Automatic annotation (TrEMBL):
Species, as recorded: Bifidobacterium erythrocebi
PANTHER family xref list: COBYRINIC ACID AC-DIAMIDE SYNTHASE, P-LOOP CONTAINING NUCLEOSIDE TRIPHOSPHATE HYDROLASE
Residue ranges constituting the CobQ/CobB/MinD/ParA nucleotide binding domain according to the UniProt record: 3-169
Domain of life: Bacteria
Pfam annotation, one family: CbiA
Gene3D superfamilies reported in the protein's UniProt record: P-loop containing nucleotide triphosphate hydrolases
Name by which UniProt lists this protein: Chromosome partitioning protein ParA
Cited CDD domains: ParAB_family
Organism lineage: Bacteria, Bacillati, Actinomycetota, Actinomycetes, Bifidobacteriales
Amino acid sequence: MIVAIVNIKGGVGKTTTAIALATMAARDGREAVVLDTDAQSSASLWAWNAEQNGHPLPFDVESANIATLRRLGDGGGRFVVIDTPPTGKITDEAKDAADFVIVPTSPNSIDLQQTSAVADTLEEAGKPYAVLIVRAEPHTIALRSAQEYFAERDASIFDTVIPKRADLGNVYGQPFGSNMHGYEDAYRELEKATGEAV
Ligand SMILES: Nc1ncnc2c1ncn2[C@@H]1O[C@H](COP(=O)(O)OP(=O)(O)O)[C@@H](O)[C@H]1O
Ligand SMILES: [Mg+2]
């Protein structure tokens, strides 16, 4: 199973989502790997910091280029998560290589238009995908409006919403603890959406 985490916006939570889902897969007993295609190397530095602090992540983070993605095939039975930069050829290659694309977005109105443009492209390409609302304040009008926005457009969207949590901002550079902040539900939804144990 190959999952790409994509959005043309930076700082929305792509890397956090990639690391969280790989964590879930590893805890499920799967061989997981995060392929870091972002020149900013956030995922790789996350793994490096965790290792330096003596608490390594429960999966490998490898840097990957276009050739790596083309060689992936079906992922060889692993749970492969591709973390991407906002735009560029490598992001397109990641979408092509993926069985499923996750588009994380905040519920802020500025992000919604960009996210829906990404969703439209995936829809047109016939690529299975779903928008994942992250960094949301629960029970707010902003969250409800965002959900309505995607519903009106018939966009594919996770029921799970990842809340805005200071704890999640602090988990960078370390492994997740027992609190997965909703990513456990996103992982189960992903399993259902892809019709197999991811
Ligand atoms: N649900 C959340 N609540 C609070 N902060 C978050 C959440 N998700 C991510 N962050 C923080 O937001 C920043 C950007 O997240 P990141 O995953 O690096 O985004 P991207 O990879 O899209 O640039 C990071 O500082 C991260 O720790
Ligand atoms: Mg990132």
